[in-house]
Automatic annotation (TrEMBL):
All residue ranges annotated as the Glycosyl transferase family 28 C-terminal domain in the record: 189-339
GO-annotated molecular function: undecaprenyldiphospho-muramoylpentapeptide beta-N-acetylglucosaminyltransferase activity
Protein name, per record: UDP-N-acetylglucosamine--N-acetylmuramyl-(pentapeptide) pyrophosphoryl-undecaprenol N-acetylglucosamine transferase
Major subcellular location class: membrane
Pathway note: Cell wall biogenesis; peptidoglycan biosynthesis
Gene Ontology annotations for the cellular component aspect, listed alphabetically: plasma membrane
Organism: Anoxybacteroides tepidamans
Length: 357
């Protein structure tokens, strides 16, 4: 039986990292893996770093919930992408398609359906994103990260699997992280991560309070493409990166506490590594509000402290960071009891089952 799987997902790193977690496991189990993504999305850059994973770019259009002149052009790009995906699947003949969502995945799931190939979707957030909502009728299984999400998906197709976290994140070494950042052992480390694209609001508020925070913490700041502040390049105890690849496990390992957006993958990674986190979810104005739900769920479980963007000021940020640090052991104790990050094996089983149908 042909063991070939076609993966898709992109637009932001959050729509790729589950695939990055799965690829080595699939290869270990003898699967041939290929990937469909967009021409210029972050998925192309991330998948290019892997060996033996052919990448097929297709045309994609952004699906927006608001008015934009591109809304007139983009449906045609999606139709073109669907034709391209249909032809690629016909030619490559995967036995299963797996999607992590994002706009590029819609044509691929429809292309799989047109070819009669089973398609599995993984949804990371509490409520399904627009792309996954459109793709769901064409999928055979919909795997969810939060049990609450099952109520938003077709009963026959929905399966709770939890979060899929890359194995290498568990292999971090705090000393390597400190050496990479030229940090010392005598002050705790605050890791700041504004999602895979960075967050201007978090960057600005953090930098406005940098001198105060640096008297108590060393700070490693992942600030997003184009957001490094050159004037702070020489600041002792403060290290900025646009985006971090293979050193990320070490940076996470050395962090005592984390300040982050509430993207699903990131927060489950911090949960896996038992890092007390202060979450500032992306506001409802700028999104469908999924990060707010993610953050509230973690707050309720006692894994995170939450500060809403509308309440973000210099004082509230400092207060929240210092309170989190003071209470960190309580957060760690509660996170030690969680079993929410064991999805990889369940996903692999579902993929094997889909192939055999
Ligand atoms: C603005 C936006 O649309 N955000 C969405 C996007 O977030 P975003 O792309 O930020 O997604 P996540 O926080 O879920 O995941 C980011 C991933 O990138 C990795 N990473 C990040 C920074 C870095 O330097 N190196 C690195 O490897 C993280 O370890 C993580 O695995 O997808 C998430 C999952 O569907 C959603 O919850 C978010 O609402």
């Amino acid at each position: 039986m042909n063991k070939k799987i076609m993966l898709t997902g992109g637009g932001s790193a959050g729509h790729v990292t589950v695939n990055l977690a799965l690829i080595p496991k699939l290869k270990e189990r003898g699967w041939d893996v290929c990937y469909i993504g967009s021409h210029h999305g972050i998925e192309r850059e991330l998948i290019a770093q892997l060996k033996n994973v052919p990448y097929f770019p297709i045309s994609t259009g952004k699906l927006r919930r608001y008015f934009d002149w591109n809304n007139f052009k983009d449906p045609f790009k999606v139709i073109k992408g669907t034709l391209e995906a249909y032809r690629l699947i016909k030619k490559e003949k995967p036995s299963v398609v797996f999607s992590k969502g994002g706009f590029v995945s819609v044509p691929v799931i429809i292309g799989a359906w047109l070819n009669g190939v089973p398609a599995i979707i993984h949804e990371s957030d509490m409520t399904p994103g627009l792309a996954n909502k459109i793709a769901m009728p064409f999928a055979t299984k919909i795997c969810v990260t939060f049990p609450e999400t099952l109520q938003h998906v077709n009963e026959q197709k929905g399966v709770y699997v939890g979060a899929a976290v890359r194995d290498e994140l568990r292999q971090g070494n705090a000393d390597k992280g400190r050496a990479y950042c030229q940090f010392t052992n005598d002050k705790p480390v605050l890791l700041v991560m504004g999602g895979s694209l960075g967050s201007k609001r978090i960057n600005d508020t953090l930098r406005a309070n940098l001198q105060t925070l640096l008297s108590d913490f060393q700070i490693v700041h992942i600030c997003g493409k184009g957001n490094v502040d050159a004037q702070l390049a020489e600041q002792k105890g403060y290290k900025q990166f646009e985006y971090v690849h293979e050193e990320l496990p070490h940076l996470m390992a050395m962090a005592d506490i984390v300040l982050s957006r509430a993207g699903s993958n990131s927060i489950f990674e911090f949960l896996t590594l038992k890092k007390p986190m202060l979450l500032i979810p992306l506001s409802k104005g700028a999104s469908r509000g999924d990060q707010i739900l993610n953050a509230r769920s973690f707050e309720k479980a006692g894994y995170a402290k939450v500060l809403m963007e509308e309440e973000l000021t210099d004082d509230s940020l400092l207060d929240a960071i210092y309170t989190l640090y003071r209470d960190k052991d309580e957060y760690i104790r509660r996170m030690q009891q969680s079993e929410a990050t064991a999805a990889l094996n369940k996903l692999l089983t579902l993929i094997e089952e889909a192939k055999n149908k």
